[in-house]
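Quick illustration, no need to memorize.
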Amino acid sequence: TANASLEYREPLYVVEGCTLSKTEESDEKCIYYYSGEKDYMIVQSITKESSVVSSNRIYNELIEINQGFAGKTDLSLNWYDLGMEYSIISSDLTNEEMISIANSLS
């Protein structure tokens, strides 16, 4: 494919009490599902966007992470890095846990 150089990254940090329960992977998207004490998923998809600042989405706040800035909503943390969009989605995780996961994907 045209995006052969893009690779999905599994996070090095997993929230305590959680395990990877399922992975769905396609040519354009990968979703990691985690379950246990807290449920969350990490979505990685190929994109042409390059920054949360330039995207059309509305975020509650911008949070600095290793890869630059991430946009925070009530249920997600989103950022762009090297042609990929990353989203951590959960109603259970704290901001600190989402940031730790994001930083472990760099």
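The chain is about 10% helix and 40% strand.
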